[in-house]
From TrEMBL:
It is a multi-pass membrane protein. The keyword Membrane applies. Residues 50-302 form the G-protein coupled receptors family 1 profile domain. The chain crosses the membrane at residues 38-60, 72-95, 115-137, 149-172, 197-221, 242-263. Its main location: membrane. This is 2-oxoglutarate receptor 1. It comes from the Eukaryota. Pfam families: 7tm_1 (PF00001). PANTHER family: 2-OXOGLUTARATE RECEPTOR 1, PURINOCEPTOR-RELATED G-PROTEIN COUPLED RECEPTOR. GO terms for biological process: innate immune response; phospholipase C-activating serotonin receptor signaling pathway. GO terms for molecular function: G protein-coupled receptor activity. Keywords: Cell membrane, Disulfide bond, G-protein coupled receptor, Glycoprotein, Immunity, Innate immunity, Membrane, Receptor, Transducer, Transmembrane, Transmembrane helix.
């Protein structure tokens, strides 16, 4: 008696379910239920306490602050804020993409995820530029050692990130499918024509340009130090470690995510088979936690950047007073701007 009504309800649910995925159903929900919560949980468990320790170390053990310290502190704050969005996403994907926190929190968490991602990219770029100026132009750029310039640069980074990501609050949508509320990410939201151009501009300005800048900065630094006759070997080794670490973060963590996000959006706009579209979607899903792994790289970066940071961590573990660091600060001050 109720079969026609049940069929109509199922058809309606199916249309809601496929609304965000064109003519293809999202076959990757079981994959996302297992892969994303596990990887995000590992990143959160390691990254959150790690960045909390980094922030407390910079605040209580690393005074007076230098330019690199200020940038690293802002980067750690960015990563910590970034990691706070992960528990919501872990719950969402573990429950089979059932969003229970409301439309406002959907937009807020997606916005925060991307805002802190691009803040991290820009702070790493800012740090690379400062390193380049200090090593390549130590005399002409002596004024950048003054903390007010660093504070101003960090403020600009926060503002640029905010402006760049703000359109996501209007583009990201939530929907109801199969009696569940879904909090869609940028690539699965509705206004694809606008999202396509916004994504291209966002990727070009807040990732591709920083990628080129970071690559050029460290290529020049390595080349200069390699051919510098009076360069200390420890400075060369430190520059090599920084270069390898920064390039790994940009080329392995960030690059696949941005390439696959562009391809994912294009695949939804083009008339391609559902099989190909689902494979593209799967690759994009894999790349998303990869981008979040930059927080691991940043934890290593804090150690590599400054010998003072290593000694501050050791003094905290051993319970030594921060005054014991003064001598090491004087020794390494010329190497760590």
């Amino acid at each position: 008696m109720n079969e026609p009504l049940d069929s109509l309800a199922n058809a309606s649910d199916f249309l809601d379910y496929t609304a965000a995925f064109g003519n293809c159903t999202d076959e990757k929900i079981p994959f996302k239920m297992h892969y994303l919560p596990i990887v995000y949980s590992i990143i959160f468990i390691v990254g959150f306490p790690g960045n909390a320790v980094v922030i407390s170390t910079y605040i209580f053990k690393m005074r007076p602050w230098k330019s690199s310290t200020i940038i690293m502190l802002n980067l750690a704050c960015t990563d910590l804020l970034y990691l706070t969005s992960l528990p919501f996403l872990i719950h969402y994907y573990a429950s089979g993409e059932n969003w229970i926190f409301g439309d406002f929190m959907c937009k807020f968490i997606r916005f925060g995820f991307h805002f802190n991602l691009y803040s991290s990219i820009l702070f790493l770029t800012c740090f690379s530029i400062f390193r380049y100026l200090v090593i390549i132009h130590p005399m002409t750029c002596f004024s950048i050692h003054k903390t007010r310039w660093t504070v101003a640069a960090c403020a600009v980074v926060w503002i640029i990130s905010l402006v760049a990501v703000m359109p996501m609050t209007f583009l990201i949508t939530s929907t109801t499918r199969t009696n569940r509320s879904a909090c869609l990410d940028l690539t699965s939201s509705d206004d694809l024509a606008t999202i396509k151009w916004y994504n291209l501009i966002l990727t070009a300005t807040t990732f591709c340009l920083p990628l080129v800048i970071v690559t050029l900065c460290y290529t020049t630094i390595i080349n200069t130090l390699t051919h510098g006759p009076q360069t200390h070997s420890c400075l060369k080794q430190k520059a090599r470690r920084l270069t390898i670490l920064l390039l790994i973060v940009f080329y392995i963590c960030f690059l696949p995510f941005h390439i696959l996000r562009v391809i994912r959006i294009e695949s939804r706009l083009l008339s391609i088979s559902c099989s190909i579209e689902n494979h593209i979607h799967e690759a994009y899903i894999i790349s998303r936690p990869l981008a979040a792994l930059n927080t691991f790289g940043n934890l290593l970066l804090y150690v590599v950047v400054s010998n003072n940071f290593q000694q501050a961590i050791c003094s905290s573990v051993r319970g030594k007073p921060s005054g014991d660091l003064e001598q090491s600060k004087k020794v390494s001050g010329s190497i760590n701007p």
